[in-house]
Every structure is written in structure tokens, then in C-alpha cells.
Amino acid sequence: MVPSTTPYALVVDDDPIILMDASGILEDAGFRTHEANDGDAAILMLPEYAHTITLLFSDVDMPGDTDGFALARHVAELYPWIEIVIASGRVKPEDGDLPDKATFLSKPFSTPMVHQHLRAILPDGKKPEPLRNAV
After folding, report:
1. How far apart are CA 17 and CA 29, in angstroms?
2. Which Gene3D superfamilies does the protein's record reference (predicted)?
3. pLDDT tens track for 60-104
């Protein structure tokens, strides 16, 4: 059996509908997904799954001790190979909120918007085949 080369994304949002929608958008882009319903749960998942994750796609405003900005900083520091996209419809990042490598996407987002953003920010070696082959 040949191991899969399909990359994983960790999708984090406390709204189950948005979590499902974001996961579907990333799966359409060629990712397999892990899901967490808040930043605290994501931090607990990372030690087990980080070696397979290429992308963190997270909301900002979530319950618990870890909002999306703190999660992004945590990932950038401990898992530097993971690309980071933070999304929010309420909060815009200010200086120092996000690590240098993270990008921000406003909600509401659509499939074409997310796919275009990922094509622009992901290095070719981290793009799943559907994103690499998109016109």
C-alpha cells in the first residue's frame, strides 16, 4: 500500500456550520482535514497530528483560553512548516496579532475566494493537486 501524499489542513472554528463549510472548501481544494471546535482543542491535537498538517485555517473569536491569533502564534513558533490562514468577520488583526508568516481572510468567505487565497500564498510544494492544476 502506498502512503497518501494528500496534505492535511487543521480547520478550527466554534461555529459548527462554518467549520463544516470551511472543511468542505479545503477538501474541494485537495486537502484532507482535521477539525477542532476551538483553539484549546486544536493545541491538544497538534502534538499528535502536526507532522501531517500543511495548513492551519482558523477563526479568531472562539471560546476558551486560545483565540485564533494565539493559536497562529503557537503554530508559527512550534510548527514552522505549517502555513497559517486566520479568518474573521468581526475582528481585524492589528500589528503584532499575527506572526509574520500568517495571512488573514475576511468572513464571509466563498470557495473561489479561499481557493484563490491559497493559490496565492501556498508554495507550490504545499499546494494540493487541485490547487496546482486550477486555471
Report:
1. 18
2. 3.40.50.2300
3. 999 999 999 999 999 999 999 999 999 999 989 999 999 999 999
Sequence-distant (6+) residues with CB within 8 A of 48 are none
Query: In whole angstroms, how far apart are CA 60 and each of 66, 67, 126?
Result: 9, 5, 24
CA atoms lying within 13 Å on the CB side of residue 66: 18
Cα–Cα–Cα angle for 78, 129, 73, rounded to 5 degrees = 20
SS3 state of residue 6: coil
Of 16, 61, 20, 13, which Cα lies nearest the Cα of 41? 13
> Could you tell me if residue 131 is inside a domain?
no
Q: Which residues span the domain enclosing 48? A: 15-117
Task: Kindly report whether the global pTM for this prediction surpasses the value 0.85.
Answer: yes
H or E segment and range at residue 45: helix 39-49
